[in-house]
Amino acid sequence: MLNFEFQNPTKLIFGKGSIAKIEKQFSRPTKIMLTFGGGSVKQNGVYQQVIDALKGHEIVEFWGIEPNPKVETLRRAIELGKAENVEFIIAVGGGSTLDGTKLIACAIRYDGDAWALVLDPKKVTGAVPFASVMTMPATGSEMNNGAVISNLATKEKFAFYSYHPQFSILDPEVTYSIPPYQVACGIADSFVHVMEQYLTDTNINPLIDRWAEGILQTLIEIAPQIQENPRDYNLMSQYMFCATMALNRFISMGVPQDWATHNIGHELTALHGVTHGESLAVVLPATMTVLSEQKRNKILQYGERVWGITEGTDGLKIAETIGRTEQFFSQLGLKTRLSQLNIGEETIAEIERRFNERGTLLGECKNVNGAVARAILECAL
Amino acid sequence: MLNFEFQNPTKLIFGKGSIAKIEKQFSRPTKIMLTFGGGSVKQNGVYQQVIDALKGHEIVEFWGIEPNPKVETLRRAIELGKAENVEFIIAVGGGSTLDGTKLIACAIRYDGDAWALVLDPKKVTGAVPFASVMTMPATGSEMNNGAVISNLATKEKFAFYSYHPQFSILDPEVTYSIPPYQVACGIADSFVHVMEQYLTDTNINPLIDRWAEGILQTLIEIAPQIQENPRDYNLMSQYMFCATMALNRFISMGVPQDWATHNIGHELTALHGVTHGESLAVVLPATMTVLSEQKRNKILQYGERVWGITEGTDGLKIAETIGRTEQFFSQLGLKTRLSQLNIGEETIAEIERRFNERGTLLGECKNVNGAVARAILECAL
Lengths: 381, 381
Prior knowledge:
homodimer, 381 residues, alpha/beta, Rossmann fold, Dehydroquinate synthase-like, alpha domain, 2 domains, two-stranded antiparallel ribbon, 14 helices
């Protein structure tokens, strides 16, 4: 097992009717900024539930944090938070709203421009405390200290690590109104979060392997049932729970990680606006194929334990395992090929150029450079 | 899934050489009380490592917290902590040392007698912050807010819930010197912690079922290997990690719990000083047998997924599953029958009387009264 440090102080408040429990989290009247994405929370009743639960507190609202939150938008929220001197922030929405809110919370306590914090998180010296009412299970942002922030001007998209939410409210009933495509992307995102922490070497932390496989098995089990019954409380609570457990660092304890798939996927989003979950569905099978020799033992373990693949030569088992993974994504209704997204050589060349320019080497073995990223993307055509 | 709230703020610092990292946890010179059990930490070098890591801090030492810590002993530590006005406490030892330290930390901030806090935890209003250097993986105390405290005068043993350790240092190398019997008890204790949270109804939180099964499978896999190689870093790190994960509330999220086995086992310890892990090895198979109708589906799931038992009638599968569980404990070298401990009818009658007197109904279905406890103990003869 690798040495590790682990701490996750976020309080989860999970279940039917949990939005009403926000009020118990405050001991005195507080000036709270609510941050939102689009208007869907007004249609599905979440907005009203939150407002009802916060009676007696002073509320400031900021609307319009978009998917793949852009620093250009967040700067306006930061200005508002500074001007109103808010004491607490609650993100009401999906992972993008919460990701944006993490930067807002830090930048309110910072004198310079917010993008400087993304480029150099050492500049973060504090944050307005914040929490979330999660409406879109996918990113795990509700129980981790990470965020992904985009810059429209520079067409860049980077991870940003700062603080955990103080608490996160997870009421599976709020997921009933999510469009099926978004649910599919959320399941794919959660699935690939697990794979990034799992698909490295074998026998490093066997319990964590089993926990990771447990999330994958559960997602595979519930995905087709959710397509049939998107308003089934039991199914949607499993989906919501798996999404949180997939990226709260539980399954990263004592193991190496990869994240090459995410880094390549982020470029597809930055350059073409591909939905995050769908970008991963395109990149993961190709990453597995290109790195199948390096990840051989773990792909075989994953194939056997998660997909029940035990027959044939190792090569055949690996091919079948990768095929089943791609099929899982396509049965979710997601595209799994760049050609389906009308993305081709021009984009591949640009991503290769960016990887080489940055000089960062990605993946568990730090061997994913521009050329390997190109090979992965060509394999995903 | 059941509604739940979850929060676990403890920082884990896990791995080889982690004791030296204590120094990074303090930002200024601090008056620290170190609490210890017997002298084994002087023999295995842990004491010296801790002292070396705390250079520059003022240290007060309290020695002599015994297994199944007694309030009579803890009162002396509380007096010392009050007199010395300590600012922080680090428990250096096993679960008993840390359990005792949790009460010490609370009682230093309380004017009355410490046992009053055990009887009524609502009287707890604060605590000296505390941490642990864990030397004996078993109780999970290093990452939860629970403790079990005994009263010599009244021959009672009760659970006490208060605060989490701020951090816990887990260096698997410190386990090399634990006597094999203690390792066996620690593995049994961890195993039964999982069972108390797992052996209820099926399909409530399928992911958590898989996580619980993952811990059980890992313990079953490593137990015989540890008997052969008690100084294998990889094996001992898995054991240490499993013990913590078995009782840090991760696997209690969204599921019911039982704890009848522990409550009956505690009486055996209170009345006869039976080692905690061994008391559970005696009681668990009998609890499974007596409640096999109620727990039917989960025993079948456990038998199939953990022990690979798929052949025969349900009745045969259940019998084989319980048999394999008892065999696991006896292969650890533990006694699994009251008769082996020279405990008989007199004790059974006393435990039945205590259960009836207290009127508490135990287990997931709150149906374990004095008569059911008698049936379980008779089955364990």
